[in-house]
Amino acid sequence: MAHLLFKGINKVYPNGFHAVHDFNLEIKDGEFICLVGSSGCGKSTTLRMVAGLEDITAGEFYIDGKLANQMSSRERGIAMVFQSYALYPHLTVYENLAFGLTLEGIDADVIEEKVQATAKILGLTDYLERFPRALSGGQCQRVAVGRALIRKVSIFLMDEPLSNLDAKQRVTMRSEIKQIHRSVGATTIYVTHDQTEAMTMSDRIVVMNAGRIQQVGTPYELYFHPQNLFVAGFIGEPPMNFIRGTVENGKLTVGELSLDLKPIVKDVSSIEGKKIVFAFRPEAIEVDPEDKNCYMIDSQVDLTELLGDTTNVYANVGDVNVILKVNPHKTPEMGASFKFAVPYKAAYVFDAETELAVESDLERH
Ligand code: ADP
């Protein structure tokens, strides 16, 4: 296990492109951290700086209290799993797992022991004599994870390791990687653009956008307490609904809609006259609320999608398109009017200019 510290890390590529800005983060021994954000936001660059595959332009990176900026990859005690699992096609699973150890000149009986132990953790014992072409995508990815795991390192880095798998295999591998982490305990940094992966696997998530950290927190903190509009829109599927407008007399008025913001904002005078974004999650709405501490909003239904456990309702509130999740037994007719409730505790306000969350005293859960 290892403790990692990033202090003001920046990456400027030789062509002048500033890919990572002032990255500050402390990762505890054995933590599972996901770097998440859309393509090009600097996740892989950050991971590659941890691995020693990319120079750090400015800032300090420490492993267990030792400055690691100039350490070689080998000295850092890391293993990395990439998106393309790049197994050697002409080697069996056994030989693929053993490859790194063989190169290091480790005794054959020690290798045998390690391969068997790793294969057991990954459920590959019955496949050791097979070649990669005779394995499923999920099994190949397991071998790739095994190759990293077998080296008993203290830092485990994964760059989109599941993106070549189909949806079902991804779900299975997600829980397998979690279980491996629980049994091995290596400090893990996992890069993904998929917020569901990040939400389900991480101890903490680092949300990045355009080379900058947007928020660091547990999945719970990010879901219930997004600090800004980017995080609010990025975490959650389908994404949060946003209704934009200007505050007048403590109310957001958009067309027919008028929402009194006093119940959900700590100091409503602080946003008087400002452009704001009123936000709520599709799954947070209610149809016949018992608790009256909520906004009642009228909408027109465009389209409904029955998913089984829930129905996605695509509707519009005036000119604004919203997505609502409703109980399938309460699915409204397409084209009908539909009144729904947004509980105060599930309603958020963001400053449209700074994009930061406006303070609230509400308990979110
Ligand atoms: P992510 O992993 O989040 O998709 P990357 O870290 O790969 O993003 O890339 C971040 C940004 O840096 C992108 O805009 C990418 O085009 C740019 N970039 C990556 N590698 C290089 C490079 N060698 N030279 C110049 N720009 C690069």
Strand content: 25-35%
Whole-number radius of gyration? 24 Å
List the ions, cofactors and other small molecules found in this model: adenosine-5'-diphosphate
Under CATH, the homologous superfamily of the largest domain reads P-loop containing nucleotide triphosphate hydrolases
* CATH topology group of the largest domain: Rossmann fold
Strand order of the largest sheet: 6-7-8-3-9-10
Q: How many DSSP E strands?
A: 19
Mean pLDDT: 93
Largest sheet: 6 strands, mixed
Shape: globular
Structural class: alpha+beta
Reading the helices and strands in chain order gives EEEHEEHEHHHEHEHEEHHEEEEEEEEE
Distance between the termini: 33 Å
Q: Under the CATH scheme, which class of the largest domain?
A: Alpha Beta
CATH architecture of the largest domain: 3-Layer(aba) Sandwich
**What is the number of helices?**
9
Would you write up a description of this structure?
- The chain is α+β, with helices and mostly antiparallel strands and 365 residues long.
- The chain has two domains: 4-229, P-loop containing nucleotide triphosphate hydrolases (Rossmann fold), CATH 3.40.50.300; 238-351, OB fold (Dihydrolipoamide Acetyltransferase, E2P) (Beta Barrel).
- Helices cover 24% and strands 33% of the residues.
- The protein contains nine helices and 19 strands.
- It has a six-stranded mixed sheet, sandwiched between helices.
- A hairpin with a 2-residue loop joins strand 16 and strand 17 (320-326).
- It binds adenosine-5'-diphosphate (ADP).
- The site of adenosine-5'-diphosphate has 12 residues, from helix 1.
